[in-house]
Design brief:
Length: 448
């Protein structure tokens, strides 16, 4: 609820917490191991605490109720744009996640046309066409690092499904640009000084801006079936459409989000399936039970892959691709007795929510049945699992993420056994997006 003026002005100093080292605060701790840092702060100060990192004071709210309070934002107290701006504003300005309230609603309404059933069926056909030869190439290698392989596959899919282009030299330049932009989001130096991550990220943004701008005129009249073309032609019920710059801003953000999040989440899924061969077989049996004679996943059978969906959700729980979601208060707010001043960065920790023992017993265990009705899916707090956010800013492409993950599994598991060494365990880097530090070495063994 919103506090009243009669209570006096809210002060950050009244919220339990600490500022850390001079100037940089907790920045190095957050970058190195945000999970351990968050656990230490919670044990010391409780589920609402104050910190200082990336040159800003901030307040973290933990738990499902906190997630609901921030994400549903019934009082329109929180700005997503101002929350994300210090981290990605210079790199992904005006992306959907960096718009607020009525403007966000209007842009989202136009963008939704690109994710309706008709277009989604077209994207699925592209995935069914493009993914099998890439997985076959993995099988021919036999042993390789999975993370860079799935990163390249997801980039290729973003290139074909999102842009309608074939992979090649341009897509390699795009990959470098996007990689530099994401890396810059967690650079300690926030100004684009020569040689810094931010300078490389800004250069990547410039390349992407020029690359997309030259394609827009032809796409406004094209009959291609890709997300870029759909955005160029999208209109709401009143005939409103996007300007060239709005198309560019949304495409760069969507491209980054789809490419990096599917890379992270499918990596976790393959890692766990390699370590839990019983679940690998369960998913394989489920896929085979669909009777896909041509091997392609039809849109009408997407929902039949229930166990596959549970496993994907569990991978997203263990390693949510976006580990935290910041907002900034646009007015003073109160949560659980703590008054938070206007202009404060407020964050929820997806990782902490997904690994909270009070909600998820034995949280480090891979157990897809947590998402079945008998596993507590219907009784668990609906904001205990938030890999796609929630409320007005719920990820617009979440169904595309499910679709792509399922298509990958359909073309992988019936033909190959995923193997990792006995007792193998990797360590995941958390920030800015979750990935295995060793690249996740696996072996694919052909099933005869």
């Amino acid at each position: 609820m919103t506090s009243t003026a009669a209570q006096g002005e809210a002060r950050l100093e009244d919220i339990p917490g600490e500022r850390g080292l001079p100037l940089i605060g907790h920045t190095l701790e957050v970058i190195k191991d945000p999970v351990a840092f968050g656990k230490r702060m919670r044990e010391k100060y409780g589920p609402v605490y104050r910190t200082h990192s990336f040159f800003r004071d901030s307040v973290t709210l933990l738990g499902p109720e906190a997630n609901e309070f921030i994400l549903m934002d019934r009082g329109k107290n929180f700005s997503s744009e101002k929350g994300w701006w210090p981290y990605i504003g210079k790199l992904f300005p005006r992306g959907l996640m960096l718009l607020d309230f009525e403007e966000h609603k209007a842009h989202r309404h136009i963008m939704a046309a690109a994710f309706k059933t008709g277009p989604m069926k077209g994207y699925l056909e592209r995935l069914n066409d493009e993914i099998p030869p890439r997985i076959k190439a993995w099988g021919e290698k036999g042993s390789f690092e999975f993370y860079p392989a799935i990163k390249q596959l997801s980039l290729d899919m973003a290139t074909t499904v999102f842009l309608g282009l074939e992979p090649g030299e341009e897509s390699r330049r795009v990959n470098k640009a996007l990689t530099d932009m994401v890396a810059a989001s967690m650079g300690i130096v926030r100004a684009p000084l020569p040689g810094t991550k931010m300078a490389k990220g800004i250069a990547g943004r410039r390349f992407m801006n020029d690359f997309l701008r030259k394609l827009i005129p032809e796409r406004r009249d094209s009959d291609l079936n890709d997300i870029f073309t759909r955005l160029c032609q999208a209109k709401d019920d009143d005939g409103n459409s996007f300007t060239d710059q709005e198309i560019i801003d949304h495409m760069i953000f969507l491209w980054m989000a789809a490419h990096d999040t599917i890379t992270s989440s499918v990596t976790t899924l393959v890692y766990e399936l390699g370590r839990h061969r019983d679940w690998q077989q369960k998913l394989r049996d489920e896929i085979r039970s669909l009777g896909l004679n041509d091997g392609r996943l039809p849109y009408e059978k997407m929902n039949d892959l229930q166990l596959t969906e549970y496993a994907f959700k569990e991978a997203l729980r263990l390693n949510p691709p976006v580990p935290a979601m910041p907002r900034e208060t646009v007015r003073e707010v109160e949560f659980q007795g703590h008054r938070i001043p206007k202009g404060t960065i407020v964050g929820l920790s997806t990782v902490s929510s997904h690994r909270d023992e009070s909600t998820w017993p034995d949280p480090d265990k891979f157990d897809p049945m947590r998402f079945s009705p008998e596993g507590g899916a219907k009784t668990r707090h609906r904001f205990a699992w938030v890999p796609f956010g929630g409320g007005a800013h719920m990820c617009l492409g979440l169904h595309f993420a499910y679709m792509q993950a399922k298509v990958i599994m359909v073309h992988l598991l019936p033909y190959y056994e995923i193997k990792v060494p006995e007792g193998y365990k990797t360590e995941f880097q958390i920030m800015p997006l979750i990935k295995p530090k060793d690249g996740l070495p696996i072996t694919l063994e052909a099933i005869v």
